[in-house]
Amino acid sequence: MSELSITLCGMKLPNPTILASGIVGISRASLTLAAQGGAGAVTIKSLSIEVRKGHPAPIILTYPGGMINSVGYSNPGIDNVGDEFSDLTSVGVPVIGSITGRNEDDYKILAEKAAALNFSALEVVLSCPHTPGYGTMAGLSTPEKTEAVTRLVKDRSRVPVFVKLSPNVMGLVDLAKAAEAAGADAITAVNTAGPGMIIDIVSRKPILGGKIGGISGRALRPIAVRCVYEIAQAVKIPIIGTGGVATGQDAIEMIMAGATAVGIGSGVYDRGITVFRQVCQEMQAFMDTENIKSLKEIRGAAHEV
Ligand SMILES: Cc1cc2nc3c(=O)[nH]c(=O)nc-3n(C[C@H](O)[C@H](O)[C@H](O)COP(=O)(O)O)c2cc1C
Predict the structure, then answer these.
(1) N or C: lower Cβ tally within 10 Å for the chain?
(2) pLDDT digit string (tens) for 107-116?
(3) Mean residue pLDDT across the chain
(4) Is 0.90 topped by the overall pTM?
(5) Which atom of ligand 1 is nearest to the CA of 244?
(6) Is 26's pLDDT higher than 90?
(7) What are phi and psi of 98, to 5 degrees?
(8) In 4-86, which residue ranges form alpha helices assigned H by DSSP?
């Protein structure tokens, strides 16, 4: 039987699937459900300093190519999650914290506050495409900002730091290199693409409350695979390949592009919370058929000439 367990930045994961940020919200109970559904690790919804209501409804739409969302970082603020996240052992798998800020000062505060919580790793999000004041809309997707924010979060963290990048930038590889140079322990590639827009032709208006939204799921997969492939050629730190993974075949493709682990977000909407177990079973079936004993054998295989 093929072996799916991995070590990611010192964390032992039973399998390479990781719940992506923002998919089941911020409660310990919902993260536990994802762990019970087979996730090897889980990521919380991103926390900001202030309480954020997010954009007005509707905030999530599906269309034949995948999903578009304008959630807008609704979250209770990092000061209000102590009860939820001070003891995370009951979740059963490593819990990855996630922080999102408007500028370097925000990230300093967020990193200090996150260090008091019980996360196994911390994801720094520089890449939301549709929330004014945050991510790419705040100009955070430059090598200079990536390096500065990564360094100051790293200086304040006891746990591995992952930097989550956007697929929407030219020179993505330079961002990954900047994160690595500043001490990032891993890269999460990628956040949603876009922003995009869907218009209701009867009311003649954009449907999403925030008008524009980030594109995830099926349409994102080839972009995410290309991003992972390019980043894998440029850095030595592990990559969490995220974007459109919903089947074992998709996950294998990410690993062959060079990912160590695989994030799953929209796949939860498509296949339910047990998507992680289903993906693992499908990976195992493929590996058994192809006589692949472990993921190490195929990691980055697409780079071989
Ligand atoms: C409804 C929704 C909310 C999201 N919220 C966040 C978030 O709070 N922080 C973040 O870093 N990414 C967020 N994302 C992006 C996902 O974590 C992931 O990077 C992206 O959806 C691509 O993966 P997927 O195609 O498997 O969904 C969100 C995605 C969706 C669909």
Answers:
(1) C
(2) 999 999 999 9
(3) 95
(4) yes
(5) 25
(6) no
(7) -145, 130
(8) 28-36, 82-85
| Secondary structure (H, E, C), 213-251 | EEEECHHHHHHHHHHHHHHHHHCCCCEEEECCCCCHHHH
Contact assessment for residue 251 and residue 283, using Cβ atoms and an 8 Å cutoff: yes
The answer to whether 243 and 127 have CB atoms below 8 angstroms apart is no
CA 13 to ligand 1 center in whole angstroms: 21
Using DSSP bridges, classify how beta strands 41-43 and 17-19 pair: parallel, antiparallel or unpaired. Answer: parallel
Retrieve residue 56's tokens.
């007005």
Q: DSSP 3-state helix, strand, coil percentages of the chain (rounded to 5)?
A: 35, 20, 40
Task: Single out the residue of 62, 21, 93, 39 nearest to residue 274, CA to CA.
Answer: 39
In this prediction, residues 25-52 reach a mean pLDDT of 96
Q: Which domains does the chain carry?
A: 6-50+75-191+217-303 (3.20.20.70)
Instruction: Kindly report, residue by residue over 118-159, the tens digit of the pLDDT.
Output: 999 999 999 877 888 887 888 888 999 999 999 999 999 999
Ligand 1 proximal residues by C-beta, below 6 Å:
20-23, 45-46, 60, 67, 69, 71, 73, 98, 125, 164, 191-192, 216-217, 220, 242-245, 263-267
Residue 227 annotated as catalytic? no
Dump strand ranges (E) for the chain: 6-8, 11-13, 17-19, 41-43, 60-63, 66-69, 95-100, 121-125, 161-165, 186-189, 193-196, 199-200, 205-206, 213-216, 239-242, 261-264
Residue 166 predicted with pLDDT over 80: yes
